[in-house]
C-alpha cells in the first residue's frame, strides 16, 4: 500500500519534532557535563548546537502551517499539528536554557572556589530524562506521561530549593565566592525551568492522545 500524501506529511512532522527532542535532551546533558567537568569546549558546542535547534523549530513551524493550509486536517491529525506547534516552543526554550547553563559554566571555568554539588548532577539527569520521557510518550502515545513527569518535576523543585539554600550559606560563609555561588544558583534555576517545560510537553501529549486538557491539573 502506497503512503498517502497526508501520511507522508504527518510522518515528516513527527520526525522533525523528535529530532528537536533528541537535540534538546542532548544539549541539557552536555551543558551540565560542561559545568561539572569544567569543559569549556563542550560548553561552546552546546551554544553552537542551539542554532540547529532554532533551524528545526522554523522547519517544524513551516511544515505544520503547510499541512494545515493544504490538508485542512480534523480529529487526531489536527490535534497532532496543534500539539507540535505548541510543544516546539517549549523545546526551543529548553535549548535556550541549556545555552544559559553552558555560558554560566564557561564563567566558572575561569576561576576557582566553590564547585557544583552532586545535587546539580542529579537535577541535570532528571531534567534531561524528562525530555526523553516526553519524546518516548510521543512515540508510544502514552497518556499517563504527565503524571510521571509531574512527580519528577517535584523532585527537581526540591533539589533546586535545597541547592539555593546551600549557595546562600556558601555566600554568607565565603563572601569572596558570591559570584561563583550565584552562577551555580542560576544553573539550578535553569534546570528547574527545563523540567517545567518538559512537563508542558507531556501535558500536550496527553491532549494529543485522548483530547484531555490536563494543564494546571493538581
Can you tell me about this structure?
The protein is mainly α and 218 residues long. It contains six helices and no strands. Helix 3 runs antiparallel to helix 6, helix 4 runs antiparallel to helix 5 and helix 5 runs antiparallel to helix 6. 42% of the residues are buried. The mean pLDDT is 90.
Structural class determined from secondary elements: mainly alpha
Give me the strand/helix succession: HHHHHH
Could you say which overall geometry the principal axes of the C-alpha atoms support?
A: elongated
Oligomer: single chain
What is the fold-level CATH name, i.e. the topology? Methane Monooxygenase Hydroxylase, Chain G, domain 1
The CATH homologous superfamily is termed Phosphate transport system protein phou homolog 2, domain 2
Q: What is the CATH C-level name?
A: Mainly Alpha
Helix content range: over 70%
Please work out how many helical segments DSSP would assign.
6
Largest sheet: none
Report the strand count: 0
Average pLDDT across residues? 90
Query: Which architecture would the CATH scheme give at its second level?
Result: Up-down Bundle
Span between termini: 45 Å
Rg measurement, Å: 19 Å
Number of folding domains? 1
> How much beta, percentage-wise?
under 5%
Contiguous runs where pLDDT drops below 50 for at least 5 residues: none
Amino acid at each position: 500500500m502506497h503512503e498517502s500524501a497526508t501520511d507522508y506529511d504527518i510522518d515528516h512532522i513527527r520526525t522533525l519534532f523528535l529530532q528537536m527532542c533528541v537535540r534538546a535532551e542532548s544539549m541539557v546533558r552536555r551543558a551540565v557535563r560542561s559545568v561539572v567537568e569544567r569543559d569549556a569546549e563542550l560548553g561552546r558546542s552546546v551554544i553552537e548546537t542551539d542554532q540547529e535547534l532554532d533551524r528545526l523549530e522554523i522547519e517544524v513551524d513551516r511544515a505544520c502551517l503547510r499541512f494545515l493550509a493544504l490538508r485542512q486536517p480534523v480529529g487526531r491529525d489536527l490535534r497532532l499539528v496543534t500539539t507540535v506547534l505548541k510543544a516546539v516552543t517549549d523545546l526551543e526554550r529548553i535549548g535556550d536554557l541549556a545555552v544559559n547553563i553552558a555560558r554560566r559554566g564557561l564563567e566558572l571555568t575561569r576561576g576557582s572556589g566553590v564547585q557544583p554539588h552532586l545535587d546539580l548532577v542529579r537535577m541535570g539527569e532528571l531534567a534531561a530524562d524528562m525530555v526523553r520521557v516526553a519524546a518516548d510518550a510521543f512515540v508510544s502515545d502514552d497518556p499517563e506521561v504527565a503524571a510521571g513527569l509531574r512527580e519528577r518535576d517535584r523532585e527537581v523543585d526540591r533539589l533546586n530549593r535545597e541547592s539555593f539554600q546551600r549557595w546562600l550559606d556558601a555566600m554568607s560563609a565565603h563572601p569572596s565566592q558570591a559570584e561563583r555561588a550565584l552562577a551555580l544558583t542560576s544553573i539550578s534555576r535553569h534546570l528547574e525551568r527545563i523540567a517545567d517545560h518538559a512537563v508542558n510537553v507531556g501535558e500536550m501529549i496527553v491532549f494529543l492522545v485522548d483530547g484531555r486538557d490536563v494543564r494546571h491539573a493538581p
